[in-house]
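[[Sequence with tokens]]
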Amino acid sequence: MKMILKLSITSNCRFLLSLFMAVTITSTAFAQDPNWTVTPSDYEYSMTVLAFLTLDGERLDNENDKVGVFVNGICRGTTNLTFVESQDAYFAYLSAYSNTAGETMSVQIYNSVTDEVRSIAETISFEISAQEGTLFQAVSWADPALSAAADILSFEFDNVNPLDQSIDNQNILITVDDTVDVSALTPVFSLSPGADLFINTVLQVSGVSQADFTNTVNYQVRSQDQSIINEWTVSVQQISSDFVFRKKDAVCFEQGVIKINSQQDGATAVLTLNDAVVASQSFNNNEVLFVNLGVGDYQVQIGNIIKTISINLRTN
């Protein structure tokens, strides 16, 4: 009798242990998906958002990752990530639903790798039939938020020593020797953190991508969060290195000066301001000197060479 009782207890323990393990495994599997659902027929209107997801600086790239939008805790739209081969990246194609325009929807992101649901600071304002985001400029849903800066911080050419360079309102002018082949230059550049550089939506890689700078090149700088795209231009001007340009800015009681040195005695330098000729001189003893210059952006033309020189007012 005692032996039978012992076997019965052992069997019950094994059964309970097996049941506990099954429940634990099942609970873990369900925890891997927040199981957000929405019934579109409950709502009169919809809008679509094309977005990319980023958590802790890492862009999510798993088809099990998902995003949901909510109003007072009720899911109004959800989708998993989809791989887009042309972009080599994952995107969320989300449809959101509402019966009222202007509703504010909160955003939650599910990271399937870490099994984490996180609410983010960004929200969306529901607009009837709106379509937000494109593959080139998608909506960013991220925690922490990504940068909206979109600037070129530095720009030069590989294996080219510039004679001069200026940056003015997103316009870059680089002066190089006239022996440089400007039809196939390789830019080396730095941008705002996380930003990307494009020519006609084609990504440019610093130190790798070549461009023809025979004419002005138009660039697009896209911010890390893709909310801002700034237009920048880069122009390359060629001059003979025989000419050396120097300037002295104006101060309170003294006007500015432009000085040009060259071995080409007899050549003529023409100085203009706002398309009006200010002065003209021929090189004498390898030098031309323009004095008593007020503040402004001057142009010096020597034959086919045109050089822009800015005289500024110095206060210290």
User: Anything to note?
Assistant: The radius of gyration is 32 Å. The mean pLDDT is 89.
